[in-house]
């Protein structure tokens, strides 16, 4: 069965520093991977996805993610964090089949301090 | 496009009452998902539909929960009778192929 794991409940980083939010996956075929962000009292917003192609995927708000097949990881990165990036981040993998069903990790809270 | 529209945004109800949450997916999307989010359990998939047909309802907690999708532009999630442990944020999402588009959620409090 497809699954993703986010090993950190919370990541703290100072504004201006690079940030990484970790995600590892387990799939039986080719992985379709996603990152979503949830701001307080809001729904989930799509950041980026990896389907195939370049291992470095660029997304919204300056975020990018690096797909690493050997380490089965899909870490979210940003070169310079903003206080406004503070939010809850979810990694997800598309389930087998073609219905668009996503399996989410538990989420990682990112705190960016000024 | 207006995105996925959910109503009500907030609802406070008494234990034992019926609650109906509504969702209008993005036009043209053929899959619809209902999720529940709580602090304790995170984001849980309750049920999803493909072309208006329920495909997997294994995440529905118990018989008090039911969901329908009478047509491609409308779905409901009903809880009857409601209990305090049902208090959560309920999200609806729709998709065409891969990425899901989420609504802003319905914040339910059962007292």
Topology:
The complex is a heterodimer of chains A (114) and B (111).
Chain A lengths: L2 E3 L4 E5 L4 E3 L2 E3 L6 E6 L5 E7 L5 E3 L5 E5 L4 E6 L8 E8 L7 E3 L3 E6 L1
Parallel strand pairs in A: 2-12
Antiparallel strand pairs in A: 1-4, 3-9, 5-6, 5-10, 7-8, 8-9, 10-11, 10-12
Chain B lengths: L4 E3 L2 E4 L5 E6 L6 E8 L3 E9 L2 E4 L8 E7 L2 E6 L8 E8 L5 E2 L3 E5 L1
Supply the key terms.
heterodimer, A: about 110 residues, mainly beta, 6-stranded mixed sheet, 4-stranded antiparallel sheet, 12 strands, about 50% strand, globular, B: about 110 residues, 7-stranded mixed sheet, about 55% strand
What is the number of helices of chain A? 0
Mean pLDDT of chain A: 93
Percent range for helical residues of chain B?
Answer: under 10%
Beta percentage of chain A is: over 45%
**How is the biggest beta sheet of chain B arranged?**
7 strands, mixed
The percent range for strand residues of chain B is over 45%
Q: What can be said about the biggest beta sheet of chain A?
A: 6 strands, mixed
Shape type of chain B: globular
Query: Biggest interface and its residues per chain?
Result: A-B, 21 and 23 residues
Q: SSE string of chain A, helix = H, strand = E?
A: EEEEEEEEEEEE
Number of strands of chain B: 11
Structural class of chain B: mainly beta
- Stretches of chain A where pLDDT is under 50 for at least 5 consecutive residues are none
Task: Explain how this protein is built.
The complex is a heterodimer of chains A (114) and B (111). Chain A has 114 residues and is mainly beta. Chain A has no helices and 12 strands. In chain A, strands 2, 5, 6, 10, 11 and 12 form a 6-stranded mixed beta sheet that branches. A 4-stranded antiparallel beta sheet of chain A has the order 3-9-8-7, with no helix packed on it. Chain A has a two-stranded antiparallel ribbon with strand order 1-4. The termini of chain B are far apart. Chain B has strands at residues 5-7, 10-13, 19-24, 31-38, 42-50, 53-56, 65-71, 74-79, 88-95, 101-102, 106-110. Chain B has 111 residues and is an all-beta fold. Classes of the chains: A mainly beta (114), B mainly beta (111). Chains A and B meet through strand 6 and strand 11 of A and strand 5, strand 9 and strand 10 of B.
